[in-house]
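I had to read the description of the data format several times before I understood it. For illustration, here is how one protein appears when written out as sequence plus structure tokens:
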Amino acid sequence: MSVRKTSFYFCMAILFAIAGAFPYSASAQVQKVQQIVKIEKDTLRMYVGQEDSLRAYAYPSARVFYWDNRVSIPVVASIAPPHSTNPYDSVYIVKAWKPGKTIIVVRVNEVAARCIVVVTPKIYVDSLRLKRDTIRLRTGDTASVMARIFPYNASDKKLGWTTVGGARVLGTTDSVTRVIAAADADTSLLIVGALDESGKRDTCVIITRRIPVERLALNHDTIRININKTDTIRASVFPLNATDQRVKWTVASGAVKALAVDSIGQAAELIGATVADTALVVAEAADGRLDSCTVITVDPNTTASVEVDKTTAIRNVDETTTIRNVDGGVMVHVDRPARLEIYTLTGALAHRESLTPGDRFVPLRRGLYIVAVDRTRRKILVQ
């Protein structure tokens, strides 16, 4: 054979090889994906009587999982599908029965994964100790509480928290929880107990203290309203987190009306008198703090003349009348004959007389009084 023929046959062989390589290469690209199955845990450690769950994962994803466990005598652990699901679910429940080891297997398309289950005897809680014997709180406060579990390797460390009294505890089974103070002054008992049937528990006292009202302030010292008309007055309680925010309204003197307009009484509607009038409205906090407002009912038909007369009268009275508190009573000085009336904050008349020019001492018990000299009124605290 000549060299030329040999080269020709060699080139043809290369061409045929190249032509045949294309369909072979395309088919090689279509490869079967390998099935992968895995259980979330390689080893599952349990104690006798415990239930736990195992989840299997497959790639590509699968809808059918075949679960099995190695039969042992006695039975160390058993498996079962969750309630209300099919027997081929990816999640199975494991129940530990006896100390020992067993193997759980799951299969997908003939590919298997396994988990070793180790069951140990149950170690019960021997004792519980709260880190605090007494917790002192103010209303609205919270606090953390920790319980120590002995022995540290107890099988079931879940705890139950309860209270007896006004204080509350957040629902949890952890060794740390939070308690919430009672809504008012209170002494409660916090109880923590082991949930492993050991019956072990510990207790702690929770003492809740009130936050008293330190100051009560009205948004007006004086309000003028027309006959039979209305206005609103508001009270502010300090501190803002005081335990009892309620406010009570009374009319110490005069013909106006004061009606609470919200659930705790921090706002009141004032209804003017049916005739021109000067009244004293008193706000009292639940803890006894007081403030007051003068409510002047004005007749709009005689406003001009009445206002001038009142201004003159008040100025004259202020110039000639002195009202001050002294130990055991009140001292009143007038430079002209006047009418004296003293009221308690409930509106009860405590003293009444006609004054002559000069000083007059009126003995009174300790408390807050409204002292009226003619049309002038003053709030006096007797010590």
